[in-house]
Amino acid sequence: MADTFSPNGRPHHPHGPTSKRWLPTLLAALWAICFASVFIWQSTSVRSISIFRSNSRLYQSIPRLRKNVFNLTDFGAVDDGRTINTGAFERAVQAIKARGGGQLNVPSGTWLTAPFNLTSHMTLFLAEGAVILGIEDEMLWPLLPALPSYGYGREEKGPRYGSLIHGQNLKDVVITGHNGTINGQGQYWWTKYKRRALNFTRPPLVQLMWSNDIIISNITLLDSPFWTFHPYDCKNITVSNVTIIAPLIGAPNTDGIDPDSCEDMLIENCYISVGDDGIAIKSGWDQYGIAYGRPSTNILIRDVTIRSMISAGISIGSEMSGGVSNIIVENARIWESRRAIRIKTSPGRGAFIHNLTYSNLTFENCRVGVIVKTDYNEHADDGWDRKAFPVVSNISFVGVRGWGVRVPVRIHGSEHIPIRDVEFKDFAVGLSYKKKHIFQCSFVEGRVIGEIFPKPCENLDMYGMDGTLIKKAATENVMVDIDYDI
């Protein structure tokens, strides 16, 4: 006989037919109570899940960053990836302009559009899952005049295509979000470029010109047709927590960030993996850049991770005819790249490259670690000045580590463009290529402080850590067999 339990929890053994008569009734009651309990639990659980989900949405809700806030859907936008929303973006920007500034929220979804302009005192906020998608039809991309410091479009003479997101003569512009994406659908443009089917220079993804107080943060920039983010003659720019992606091969000229004649700029906490230079600091091309005369200066790059199998992680030039100065690069990891750090110029560029500080760098599996090239003979046209030689000086490398590097250093100055005042300290780069001249120099003057690896070239003075001169360089003009394949 099965045990039952009394209210006090103790088992007892009932006897007689009365217990048997009540047993079916008791079981039915227990079944009813259990069913009701399950129903109540389910209802409560659904409400709890709804509350949890609601809280998740609140956590990802778009913050109010401006007094005036607008939603893209209020202007008729459709997020199906097929409807062209250019008019909606333009109406939204005009509404913000009319109110003296505001925030435009782009909700989750795929928003196809042709290029549109921003306005001053504006925040463009891309929610999580939001994608601004550039249309694959160059007839809908406006043509803009050539940049004055380049003479004409970078690839073709004449006008150039305007960027997907554009702005000129603006102040206080923010592009941010919960890691939403701006997608240029670059494959369309790369294919046409390779087939020579374009009559004008390809467009950047985001370009702001003659503007101040710019913040780009917490977004992803994907598959730009050309240079990805191109601030031109701007001041006070911050790029923070931005991911920039393009195919490593087959995506020509997809530089990540190209400060061009810019002043007071911070680039930090970014991941960049692209088909050309990760970051390239510029300031105009040959005689046009010399005449425009706007340097790139006071730029800090820190805490970045970059990959560039075709070009370089961080470059200066080659278009630097307005000058480049006061550049600090610190805490940078460059991996699986053709070159890690590159400085490139040539006769005809004029101007200067000076006061560059590189510290706490890591090179992983790079073909060359540091390269300075002074014969990058690519010119805007045949009108360049054959006597316009740039001055390259005051460059330091401190705290550099690496492994899997084929040639750690190649500094190739020339009789007309010598490299002056170069310093190496706390430099140790492991090798993947056993060649005699792995530290290559020509027409270089500078110093090595303390022990470095690999053995430096004879062009450099050797100092102890206490500043004592140990060995004077034999000559600054020692020419080694330069490896032109790197």
TrEMBL record:
<keyword id="KW-0378">Hydrolase</keyword>
<feature type="transmembrane region" description="Helical">
    <location>
        <begin position="21"/>
        <end position="41"/>
    </location>
</feature>
<comment type="similarity">
    <text>Belongs to the glycosyl hydrolase 28 family.</text>
</comment>
<keyword id="KW-1133">Transmembrane helix</keyword>
<keyword id="KW-0326">Glycosidase</keyword>
<dbReference type="InterPro" id="IPR011050">
    <property type="entry name" value="Pectin_lyase_fold/virulence"/>
</dbReference>
<dbReference type="GO" id="GO:0004650">
    <property type="term" value="F:polygalacturonase activity"/>
</dbReference>
<keyword id="KW-0472">Membrane</keyword>
<dbReference type="InterPro" id="IPR012334">
    <property type="entry name" value="Pectin_lyas_fold"/>
</dbReference>
<dbReference type="Pfam" id="PF00295">
    <property type="entry name" value="Glyco_hydro_28"/>
</dbReference>
<dbReference type="InterPro" id="IPR000743">
    <property type="entry name" value="Glyco_hydro_28"/>
</dbReference>
<dbReference type="GO" id="GO:0005975">
    <property type="term" value="P:carbohydrate metabolic process"/>
</dbReference>
<dbReference type="InterPro" id="IPR006626">
    <property type="entry name" value="PbH1"/>
</dbReference>
<protein>
    <recommendedName>
        <fullName>Polygalacturonase</fullName>
    </recommendedName>
</protein>
<keyword id="KW-0812">Transmembrane</keyword>
<dbReference type="InterPro" id="IPR051801">
    <property type="entry name" value="GH28_Enzymes"/>
</dbReference>
